[in-house]
Design goal:
The structure is a homotrimer. The first copy, chain A, is flat and about 85 Å long. Chain A is α/β, with parallel strands linked by helices and about 350 residues long. Strand 39 of chain A pairs antiparallel with strand 40 of chain B.
């Protein structure tokens, strides 16, 4: 186990104060790290979201726990009482594990164009490149080997991990996190068929990313062909996602790894797109839609709800015997109809 | 909207001359950027491919339009008349948005091996690396942080965006574009099972890429195990595509994002492979085949046409009720056969 | 053909000695490269695994071949006789194609933190970055532009190709190979829903990779949320694979390209996961399981065997006619049951 080293920690009453939640029991207990109920030890704080894990709660060696109001008295441990214990846990974890601090200024090996406007508090790592007329806001961190193209604007507090590429002209909001290998603003896949040969269509739109967006490792977001590709505030994209040109991802939508969106897809707000889901081009997805992992979406969805299109895998022989029949389904339906007609005829 | 800034533009008659198409109306009107009919304003040129959008054509604020011969008189705007308006539009867009110009020579932070042969007009960006005996042709651009391995040859006019990796010994033709994060020539996935342990098989083939190929962001093309992996002239590969060792992609074939080809797949010329389509190993795909997005191809295809294998997603509860029956299809077919036999028996 | 250049080669009897297998015929013949039966020429060694290719074996121009004991006398060519000819071939190929040798020491453009412990025999390439307190074992090669985070430990003989990123605190065993674009240790996709907004949960676990693991180009392995993500000894991961936080991949398991594992998946030892297979979160896969390419696994598998869930693609029109019926399967089953009941009633 190479869990991140814990810092000096916080007193429980101090956590309660900072997070504006109630604490019960010894407010002076110091917690240094988050943990699961089962693995927690002294100095750790764990959580439960409801009453289902009372037995584990009774056995935990944690120094403190986070519980919902209904479980206020389910333990004698020092505790925070929060309406949303998981969200409270996330905030506690963030306080106990602050992001790494980077020294302001550009590393001597970084190549920053003289026309770039870099805030004094921003940090530019070894071998990073910042292009002409780029703007880096306060506390922005551009880590080792990341390439920030010309005219890119990055809002305050954003962090680009090592080896990210942002193509020229893209815009990132505040507090955006981009993981290594992500590529923002590469050309969309636009071309015209000219008698069997492809003519590239210059992609003259850009990518505009809102505030508080997170973009996973090796995720690619293409620039727009004419208009922009847009990722709205608070959207969260996992690793290896492909976002085609001119897509718009609504605010606070979460997309799991390996999902792919072809061009001009509009996904609403507060959607959840499962891993490896694939959405065809020019499709509209309403607000509040959940798409199951691995599902292919080839038509627009105008109602919230859960949508699915995958089959549970089976032992190979059993699967292939049944799957082969799908190719004869229409014929089977006809045979059943014939049977029904003939039976109906005899019934008279 | 952060659309690319327009340059000084072209007179319409000058565009017509350069593209060898007819112009009608005021040839002196200057167009500076392409746009859609709906968003176009003064200085913009838009296009229609047929007569379906005549109402929009009547309302557009574009300074000029591109129309097919059949729509020659459907507008009073200054216009180009082209047999293939979309291809004409692509060419106009390219003239109005020329690729960025890079200063020739190597950036002081680039590491170029003394034995590499770099054309005087080629540009090598900051922190790029060019290995021993590599060759960069005229006007080649190797952008920031890209790694060009030993003995790699890159033809005239090719452009490698930031943070591309080309492994040793690979060959790229002329006018190839490679987007950030792409990896060309990593080892194919070849190994022998030796009593439950895997022994790596050195991948001694290479990757050979023809002229006018485009390779998307984070796409990976593995080197061959014995022979080469080959991408023929004019093929276009979108982002996050995986091409296994010893594949051959035919000329002018287009592959959309997230598609995957296992080893030794041969795809014909002028094919269109949809996004997230997956092709099993050792499969041959004929010329002119279209594969729908998300489709799994597990057998060779010897006839042109469109091939599909995905199900439209449905609301979750409805889907699961029906999908579960697929596991009983063979049994259902048997039951229908029994009914038919018994009904036939009674009919006599 | 740009096949890797062959070295001075080995005498057949020397190969036999080094690999501890029998040789038959002229032990003095020198082989310089491996090849397939069909393409082999003088200086090449080819192989057969059984008697199925005797005709080709009779025609081959190879200087030597590798055969199984049962085919010991099927050729007059100088030969190695090996119980597992393919594994023997892999070992011969490795002897004939040794990995590139890198000069020890750090390139002048590399940025190695003074607190890093780098073995004298290790090589750090141009523009590579090695963070504080990182450890590189003997003969480790960190190629151009690779980023090794703080506190990362890399065991002896491991090789990181250009532009790999290893986040802080991760551990790699001995003889690990990581291909370009791979990202190890980015944050897992963990967040809490707080009234429609996502709160990031710090990912405080790490990634622990065993010995003899190979990781393909642009593959991403996320760090654990609390505990570690673990890849056990001898596992082989192809390109563009996504491994979510807290997964554990068993020893000697092979995963083909584009596969995706959501969080907390446990895959057993000696499994084979096909390309583009997708495994949902919190699933356990037993030892010795094979999953077909493109299959979605949404439930745990506790028995070894082959599991499948994909449909063979068909010509588009035929497919859509049949696929549409899947949405009515439950209704069809009901109709068949009605027919059976009514027929049974009449039979009495």
């Amino acid at each position: 186990m190479s869990r991140a080293q814990a810092g000096p920690g916080f007193r429980l009453d101090e956590l309660a104060r900072q997070l504006a939640v109630e604490h019960v029991g010894d407010g002076g207990v110091v917690v240094r790290q988050v943990a699961s109920l089962g693995s927690a030890g002294p100095g750790d704080i764990a959580f439960v979201v409801d009453g289902k894990r009372r037995a584990e709660l009774g056995r935990t060696a944690a120094s403190a726990v986070i519980v919902p109001p209904a479980e206020r008295d389910a333990t004698a441990l020092p505790r925070l009482v929060a309406a949303n214990p998981y969200a409270c846990y996330a905030r506690v974890a963030a306080l106990l594990n602050p992001p790494e601090v980077f020294a302001p200024g550009a590393h001597p090996t970084a190549v920053v164009h003289p026309s770039a406007r870099v805030a004094a508090s921003a940090s530019v790592g070894p071998h990073a490149v910042v292009g002409a007329d780029a703007e880096l806001g306060e506390d922005v961190v551009v880590m080792a080997g990341t390439s920030v193209g010309a005219r890119v604007r990055i809002g305050a507090g954003s962090r680009l991990h090592p080896r990210v590429v942002v193509y020229p002209g893209c815009t990132l909001g505040a507090r955006v996190v981009v993981h290594s290998g992500a590529v923002i603003g590469a050309d969309g896949f636009g071309m015209a068929d000219d008698g069997g040969r492809w003519i590239k269509i210059p992609q003259i739109g850009s990518v505009v990313i809102g505030d508080d967006v997170e973009i996973g490792a090796c995720t690619t977001i293409d620039r727009g062909s004419l208009d922009d590709t847009v990722i709205e505030d608070g959207a969260k994209l996992d690793n290896q996602i492909q976002i085609g040109h001119n897509c718009r991802i609504g605010a606070h939508t979460a997309i799991a790894g390996c999902a792919g969106l072809a061009g001009s897809v509009r996904v609403g707000r507060h959607c959840r797109i499962g891993g490896a889901a694939m959405i065809s081009g020019h499709i509209d997805i309403a607000d509040g839609v959940t798409i199951s992992g691995g599902t292919v979406i080839s038509g627009s969805i105008d109602q919230p709800g859960v949508y699915t299109g995958v089959f549970p895998a089976r032992p190979h022989r059993e699967w292939t015997r049944n799957a082969a029949q799908v190719g004869h389904l229409r014929e089977l339906v006809r045979r059943v109809r014939d049977l029904e007609h003939r039976q109906a005829g005899k019934g008279e």
